[in-house]
Design goal:
This protein is α+β, with helices and mostly antiparallel strands and 334 residues long. It has two domains: 220 residues, Class II aldolase/adducin N-terminal domain (L-fuculose-1-phosphate Aldolase), CATH 3.40.225; 88 residues, no CATH class. Helices cover 43% and strands 14% of the residues. The strands form two sheets. The chain has a seven-stranded mixed β-sheet with strand order 3-2-1-4-7-6-5. The protein has a three-stranded antiparallel β-sheet with strand order 8-10-9, with helices on one face. The radius of gyration is 19 Å and the shape is globular. The two termini are 32 Å apart. The N terminus is likely disordered. The site of zinc ion has 6 residues, from loops.
Amino acid sequence: MSLKVSESFPPQELFTLSENVGRRIPDWTQGAGGNISVKSKNSLWIKASGERLSDIAGPAERNRFARLDCVKFAQEFQILQQGIDRTKIKQSSVGFDPSGGLFEKEKKYSEMLKVFSDPEFGKASMETAFHIKLPQKYVLHFHALSFILIHELTSADPALMAQVQKLLRAKYQISCHWVDLFLPGFQLSLFLEVGAGDQIYILKNHGIILASDSETILSKFEVLEKDLLKELDVAWEFNQAVPENVGGPIKVFFPDFIIFKNEIKKHLKNSGDKKYFFSRPSPEATKEERGAFENWWATQKLFASNPHLAELSIDFQREVLGLPTEKERFNKSR
Ligand SMILES: [Zn+2]
């Protein structure tokens, strides 16, 4: 199999989009979470696994992004999907079904990410499957906290969902999809409906995916996010300076928190009443400590906005930690 494709460097938009999403901490980005891709000819350029979005720019940083052959990866992925009973995944809501061979497929998928990543660059992100599945040139996935709240608020209310859908379509020409809770990576990608034009996928307890043929999708999103929060009457403050310390209960609202849970616990100081504090890391702090703090900060912002926000079950947390793709990421960040 030849991994040679026609270009030797990613389009500039990969860097500008990554920078613009990556600097919005913790509202859009926490630690090394999120991933952005650009398709060019038959290549997919995407952030490498375990890298921070804001760190991937620069000619010397070739291992911080990855390149894959879209066509070959899609063909292999098509084969991998065969024989999967989606309703079974949906019913259990959390994933592994050893008898259905799902765990084997997760392992194979993790292998595929390595095999298909051009060795001249880094190893592709665990969310690569949906970046390839969605046909738009630009696919942006990040953990926009506002949309975790919006999903919680709207998903059980058909009238509200219709209202959001209508607003996004009429004012922003974007099609809107609600996506249930699935394990990140392979399984999530199985449940995304492909459509033409600009799309936004609102992922339960996770974040969003934007797909578009125009890089202006990000500035469009920035406006619609504020608009929607206002429309739905959700109080949210953006771009606060980093506080000296952040306190609150330990809550698990999104998958990356699970990955950082042990690191977070190392830094927490108990102030009684099940309230804990985490002090702002020093400028010399490790990548893990910064990632842990940002995930903690994000969690506390969500909790402050909605103390009743649904947490991820223990079963789901266990499933995430068992994912071959997450194990790789976890080991890398050690
Ligand atoms: Zn994610």
